[in-house]
Specification:
The protein is an alpha/beta fold and 233 residues long. The chain contains 6 helices and 8 strands. The strands form 2 sheets. Strands 3, 4, 5, 6, 7 and 8 form a 6-stranded parallel beta sheet that branches. Strands 1-2 form a two-stranded antiparallel sheet. The longest helix has 27 residues, at 202-228.
Length: 233
Amino acid sequence: MDTTPQENTQEITQESTGETIPSAAESAPESIPEGTRESPATAPLKLAVILSSNREGRFGPVISDWFLSRVAERDDFTVELVDLAASELPSALSFRPTPEVQAELAKVSPKLEDADAFAVITPEYNHSFPASLKSLIDWHFGEWQAKPVGFISYGGMSGGLRAVEQLRQVFAEMHAVTVRDTVSFHNAATHFDSNGQHKDPAAPDAAAKAMLDQIAWWGHALRNAKSTHPYAG
């Protein structure tokens, strides 16, 4: 951390008491050049990217790798991946989870709590979203409150948009704010090559930027508001 050079730092002795008094330069707080310290209002947002599919042979990691590479190009986010294939939350909820369930919650709950915003990557299963994602949502509540959520969906002809429309209703109940713009991949597998690179990235890159811009706006607005007035959900 840069500090102001300390000049004239010799000690001054008070004659009447013999007490040593620091000079003004010693007692003054360290000054930091303007623009070198991030304020809470401008610090990067902590974005939790939730990869919701846990199905064997899933295509989700291709989508998440693509999306994470887009986020990495920005300096207004730091990223934490929450891969639901790495946890096994049961669908049976409990106010007294067993030690086994507590261990599974420990894999995901701190990441959700720490996040300022979320980006949910979801396929569409039978006109809806995966059960693994519903379990994650239902095991938590306060972790979602007053935070923005964006969606990246994929599937067949619908591109996962029917799953997204249902998720908007669910996250509204969680007191989260879903952003308008989404990223959607119709017949997703046909758009990526064998190395996981999108064959024609201009349109999806633009869609990702628009969605991330909206997440950033809402993320900063909500985080700043909560810093002065806690959310009463």
